Amino acid sequence: MDSPSPAVLAEGLTKRYGDTVALAGLDLTVEPGTVHGVLGPNGAGKTTAVRILTTLTRPGGGTARVAGFDVVREPARVRAAIGLVGQHAAVDEILGGRQNLVMFGRLHHLGVRAARTRAEELLERFRLTDAADRPAGAYSGGMRRRLDLAASMILAPPVLFLDEPTTGLDPRGRNEVWESVRTLVGGGTTVLLTTQYLEEADQLADRISVIDHGRVIAGDTPDGLKARIGGDRIDVVVRDAADLAATAEIIGRIGGRGADVHADTGHVGAAVTDRVAALTEAVRALDSAGIAVEDIGLRRPTLDEVFLRLTDDQEVTV
Predict the structure, then answer these.
(1) Which GO terms describe its cellular component (predicted)?
(2) DSSP β-ladder status, 260-262 and 82-85
(3) What is the DSSP letter of 174?
(4) Model confidence over 45-92: pLDDT tens digits?
(5) What are phi and psi of 51, to 5 degrees?
(6) Is the pTM of this model over 0.90?
(7) Where would you tag: which of 161, 222, 285, 290 has the fewest CB atoms within 10 A of its CB?
(8) Residues near 82 by Cβ (< 8 Å), separated by ≥ 6?
């Protein structure tokens, strides 16, 4: 059986604004029914890519297809197949949640009865029924973003673009949006997510593309990206700063590649291959050397570390 076509496929996308290169040959493949995270520093090209893929901006070069339709030759068909939640709320804060959704339904050419029916379905789906008649301006940040998500799903599009959807939200609000995204994907929606929150990508994304200077510099699963910078790590916090050098020598020898030392926090860390054996050896060696530790443990690299390593190293290949 043939595998399904990508929900999003971009090949060699370029875009310039005057002398500024926003995209420099961006390639991107998003499989259907998944969350694909796009990470990058400010100015990397994330929003430009989304604007091209949602037909808001024409590319300077390259090709892109969304839900099987060409973004340049078939923009109307692309727009009919997508939803978009941008960085800022698009709902009317004077209207209630129900009124907002009915209005969006009418703007999408639904009849009055169909728009009302769809609004009720979405209010229940996004857990907004109890607040349906309150002005959206009185909603919490997380509730407003859930209302934004509901509005983007009026026509149940197969592909949803989320451009930094939780910017400015507190942890509770972010968790509310994350739960809603998981529900959508569980129902078969494909999500392309741009974010600067590394934890967000780690929580939601099946696959991540890291972009910098307008091109993809790495792409993999979250765990695959973490494995690129050494897999598991052993971390030690020493009680006495005078023991930092000796601790670094021990931990670096166990890891085989040297250790990272942070004198201001008394922290020493190194990548290791055999996590259990490394931890056992470290505890014995530190005890034998008479080094007192405040804490010792194993952990996986964070996406923050991956992101910083990759965006600092332009020699990384995809």
Answers:
(1) plasma membrane
(2) unpaired
(3) H
(4) 999 999 999 999 999 999 999 999 999 999 999 999 999 887 776 788
(5) -65, -35
(6) no
(7) 290
(8) 54, 66, 67, 157, 158, 159, 160, 161
